[in-house]
Amino acid sequence: MIEVKNVAKSFGTTIALVDVSFSVAESSVFVLIGPNGAGKTTVMRCMIGELKPDKGSIFVNSSPLNIEAKKHMAMMLEERQVFDKMTGSEHAKVWSMMYKSWNDSRFKDLVLHFRLPMDKRVSEYSIGMKTLLFFILTVSTDSKILILDEPTQHLDPVWKDDVLSIIRSYAQCGNTIILSTHQVEEAELMATHFAIIRSGRVLYSDELDAAKENHRVVRVEEMEEELEQITVMNNDTVLVKTNKEIGRYPTFREIALGYLRSKESVLIQ
């Protein structure tokens, strides 16, 4: 279990995170979904210990984030930080020395599957190939907790499907995945749990199935005073938070876009 409690972070006068809280269950796929610049990368860097929150705390298995906990975590950064003069193989050698749990068999299998030219300098890789390299490196650490920042960015549809399949398989082995995306469809495919984040604030967080159970899409004429309106979807329908048997169940896309379009933040459940 990972708990993010009331985390705030600023860079100078720029506010990146405001009172961010959510919990990540063990062996779950937790998806942070939000637009670019929402604060997804910043909160992930706080979770791995790369950034220190100005306020708030990160807990792993009820203990404050510490060196021992970090030994079981690996992160794939959105920037894909590389040493351009090094080859793919040389990057792998560095990573294998950093992680005692390094799974060389998995690494070789994935390199073969994606046909990455490991003898080439990474500076010669396409953007998509760099994404694949760092995804493979991260998964090959065999860490119990993976933090993946936009892991399918710049990938073609076939590679993207393969990466998502590998992530699902990794989680099914009892590992915990935290990933970020701005693609709603991708989030719905992957998530067991999620948090919707915008402008550094968590708007809503829940289990995927529970979120659908606890919302309805109703016609305007069905609206009642006690219903909590999230957003007007179009001229005829409204997304509301309720488990009353009215209207219809929303899709995850409707929930995510509804909160992202709402004017006010809604407290985490």
Automatic annotation (TrEMBL):
<dbReference type="GO" id="GO:0005524">
    <property type="term" value="F:ATP binding"/>
</dbReference>
<protein>
    <submittedName>
        <fullName>ABC transporter ATP-binding protein</fullName>
    </submittedName>
</protein>
<keyword id="KW-0067">ATP-binding</keyword>
<comment type="similarity">
    <text>Belongs to the ABC transporter superfamily.</text>
</comment>
<feature type="domain" description="ABC transporter">
    <location>
        <begin position="2"/>
        <end position="224"/>
    </location>
</feature>
<dbReference type="InterPro" id="IPR050763">
    <property type="entry name" value="ABC_transporter_ATP-binding"/>
</dbReference>
<dbReference type="Pfam" id="PF00005">
    <property type="entry name" value="ABC_tran"/>
</dbReference>
<dbReference type="GO" id="GO:0016887">
    <property type="term" value="F:ATP hydrolysis activity"/>
</dbReference>
<dbReference type="InterPro" id="IPR003439">
    <property type="entry name" value="ABC_transporter-like_ATP-bd"/>
</dbReference>
<dbReference type="InterPro" id="IPR027417">
    <property type="entry name" value="P-loop_NTPase"/>
</dbReference>
<keyword id="KW-0813">Transport</keyword>
<keyword id="KW-0547">Nucleotide-binding</keyword>
<dbReference type="InterPro" id="IPR003593">
    <property type="entry name" value="AAA+_ATPase"/>
</dbReference>
